């Protein structure tokens, strides 16, 4: 990308062929849990309407996968989000999260949830900024303690934002 030409970021619903580039992005980021390439391909078939990819010139530079909880369909869960380093787009992660959450709120979600490591300051900042912008309450508690996982895994802290209403 030359300095005099900045391509537009496009947020779109993922397709199964986005599975491999998303897996490659996650595989390079040691802070994220790496699932199999098949997982992302299947996710983008079955939960595409709850997920997003961000592209620049058709290159996937960010993604977010989420779902609506079967036992609580008014709750949108953000499972995983990542952006490529040095993508050159200010607030790409924040805007990706906001875009995905707003789509789900427009479809009836009243709450947004995500589990986060206490060390993951960037996503905690995204969650807090989103809650503040919506004047929504944000609560957190340990959803799954580290003892549920093998090796050196952290507590999974649940952040719950809401109730939310569509913006007027």
UniProtKB/TrEMBL annotation:
The keyword Transferase applies. This is L-2,4-diaminobutyric acid acetyltransferase. Its EC number is 2.3.1.178. PROSITE patterns: GNAT. Transmembrane segments: none annotated. Residues 9-150 form the N-acetyltransferase domain. CDD domains: NAT_SF (cd04301). Keywords: Acyltransferase, Transferase. It comes from the Bacteria. It comes from Halosaccharopolyspora lacisalsi. GO terms for molecular function: diaminobutyrate acetyltransferase activity. The keyword Acyltransferase applies. The lineage of its organism: Bacteria, Bacillati, Actinomycetota, Actinomycetes, Pseudonocardiales.
């Amino acid at each position: 990308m030359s300095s005099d030409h900045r391509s537009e970021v496009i947020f779109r619903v993922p397709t199964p062929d986005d599975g491999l580039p998303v897996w490659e992005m996650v595989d390079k980021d040691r802070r994220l849990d790496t699932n199999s390439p098949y997982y992302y391909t299947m996710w983008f078939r079955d939960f595409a309407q709850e997920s997003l990819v961000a592209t620049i010139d058709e290159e996937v530079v960010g993604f977010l996968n989420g779902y609506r909880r079967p036992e609580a369909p008014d709750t949108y869960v953000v499972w995983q989000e990542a952006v490529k380093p040095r993508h050159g787009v200010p607030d790409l992660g924040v805007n990706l999260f906001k875009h995905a959450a707003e789509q789900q709120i427009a479809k009836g979600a009243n709450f947004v949830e995500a589990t986060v490591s206490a060390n993951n300051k960037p996503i905690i900042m995204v969650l807090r900024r989103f809650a503040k912008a919506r004047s929504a309450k944000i609560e957190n508690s340990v959803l799954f303690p580290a003892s549920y996982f093998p090796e050196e895994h952290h507590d999974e802290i649940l952040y719950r934002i809401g109730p939310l209403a569509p913006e007027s």
